[in-house]
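Q: What structure does this chain adopt?
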Amino acid sequence: MSSFRVLAERNVPRYTSYPTAPHFSAAVGPETYAQWLGALAPDARLSFYIHVPYCSDICLYCGCHTKAVHQRAPVDFYAERLIDEIARVAEIAAGRRVTHLHWGGGTPSILGAYWLRQIIRILAASFDLSEIKEHAIELDPRHISTELAQTLAEIGVNRASLGVQDFSPHVQKAIGRLQPFEQVAHAVGLLHEAGISNINIDLMYGLPHQSAEDVDASAQLAALLSPQRIALFGYAHVPWLKANQKRIDEGALPGVVARLAQAQKAAETLTAFGYVAVGFDHFALPDDPLAVAAREGRLHRNFQGYTVDNAEALIGLGASAIGKLPQGFVQNAADMAGYMRRIDGASFATAKGFATSAEDQRRAMIIEKLMCGLAADLGGLAGAYSAEMESLRPLIQDGLVEFDGSRLAITERGRPFSRIVAAAFDAYLPANVARHSMAV
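A:
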């Protein structure tokens, strides 16, 4: 267990991109983003991510870019800027097909029925939404009403992701998010009644005062709601980045051995309920598109996590939103004042980004293959990555990784350490290792 503990305590990225966001710079700005948009082929497929950085209150564990808001005016003001940003993108990329649409936050539903409808109406006026495969939204189960569920169905939402984290009352109290199982079950029922049948549930391990028994019980209760997907995230304690986490008692956090036991127990429970493992932290029913894509080698990974989205460009809208185009990544200003100022200045809100080289793209492909399918065929590139392979030798000796001279594969025992295997191919990691969370 000692060698596993050393691995689990390593700080590595979650690899929702490569290079990762800490390496983005102001060298990529609004002008570059406009050029990249203009270079998209007329038949390029688009994916949209809409970030709403507001919540009615902030949970102690939260690591998202969001803030509490108790008045209507800031939300209305922000929604108007989202529409302005959509118009700016449409000036260059209008008419293209949209295959995926994802609302994240924060709590996107805080926009209210009027703005949810308006934003979809504006998108539909400039882009082809007729071929959307997945229209998803992140929701707080404590704030789902019949009216909201019906509005979401009306605008075409076909998948809802509910933040649960843990069903144990003492854990909920420790993270500042009280929501009984009955409340979550009621929310799921309202969504089903509205016709939204695809449900995701997010769970966490590694939370304060949380035990393996708590995680196991939460996994069982989540499975009883029959969601198509369950994400099992390890809590990332980064109080130097998120001030709200400073209110969490670090002494109450499970150690790395306990975290690993919690993750493994939850995985066993979910598998017993018929879910299949997807990547290193997702579970899905066998017939869910995510599980099917994983079996067929079509799974991808972006800033929303595991996805079947294979659009040529991901357009990020809103403060802090990240987009991806064939040439690289772009990120909007994270601070609200900066985002508003850029949009009001008739410019894109792009504050930084990264133009990827051919080598970056090769490494990104290897990392994505490892994170999604637990294997990557290096082929003729194996010799070019001899140093990387040498760094993985201890994992090979421990039976966590296998290598036959060209194909690198993570074993089932090694699944929890997938991020560490991927990190071996991260040429930028040493400079920013302290900014990332524990591997398990």
